[in-house]
Amino acid sequence: MIPIANVLLQLMLSGQAVPAVPGGCSELAGENIGKPGCFLSTLLTISEPPATMYWHIAEFPDEVPARSAARGHEWATVVPAHGRWWLYVLSSSREEKLHGHVRGLVSPFQLIAGQPVIARFMESTFPPGMRTRVHSHSGPEAFFVIEGEQCVSTSSGDFTIQRLNSRIVDGGAHLQAASKGRKSLVLIIAPPNQPWMKLEADDTLASGCQ
Q1: CATH number of the domain residue 85 falls in
Q2: pTM of the full structure
Q3: 3-state secondary structure string, 165-190?
């Protein structure tokens, strides 16, 4: 018989004993203001995306100018997140005329041209020490860190995203952690006919980000 301590150790190493992140990136952000976890800001359906997309991010002091600035953009949405208002514009071009305080350009997202996708915009707050379970997505996931720093562990290595910087994980098993805490904006672009997230068992990632 295998000692129960060894079984628990294996569960911890595989990530199964790590608690789920509050909100699961599915509960609405507007109903969970100020809470730690990952919450859904909004969804944007794109029926015929280009093969390469860029995520433009601008910050506004309030909602009205943000919505005014969204006019004229084919794929744009305005959301409140982390006590601020944000204009998100998805575009096939690196160059996009934006008003407000332009915070960042996250690119490139590599997609299948013409295949419908859903852009899942989220906000995430991790207190020091919080990390996700090992998981994967059916499309690329991007992070833009606005406070603190974020570590991401993937099968190809670990990397840290500093404040006001971004990174895209194109696919495969990974986990995120924040030893010092962080707040970030998150985007997953995934096909509508596939699960956008699933848990993975990858022991090699357990020793990465802590």
Answers
A1: 2.60.120.10
A2: 0.90
A3: CEEEECCCCEEEEECCCEEEEEEEEE
